[in-house]
Amino acid sequence: MSDLTSRSEEIWKPIPEYEGIYEVSNLGNVRSVDRYLDCKIKNVNKHLWKGRIISQQKRKDGRLTVALYSHSKRKRMLVHRVVADVFIPNPNNYPCINHKDENPANNKVENLEWCTYKYNNNYGTFAERRRKTMEEKGYWFGKKDKGGGVDG
Question: N or C end of the chain: which has fewer CB within 10 A?
Fold first, then answer.
């Protein structure tokens, strides 16, 4: 699928509490919308503020965030949470969002699903990767092994 094709399939919806200011797409992009703002420069009462794609920042854990502004207040939001809130129904009120491909930067709607904490923590290779990291750091059953071996 070419980039041109994927762009034509992009669906935009307003972000709750930011209607008329920001929208999120099914591909995980966030944009500001065209709007008129009050302006007191050169006797102009209204100024057209052109919308644009908002840049996203990657956290240390690989998740993407975006800064949204309303009434001069900034709120940093996780992009996958915004996409899921807007595009994926959550009838069971699950608290977590799972990335099906285990790539926290892939926030396309088809890659996300609502789930429980337990499901999210046991999904795919997460438990295996966590255990490997703990072993590399010298932890054994949650306690650091200071004696060089397993305590009996």
Answer: C
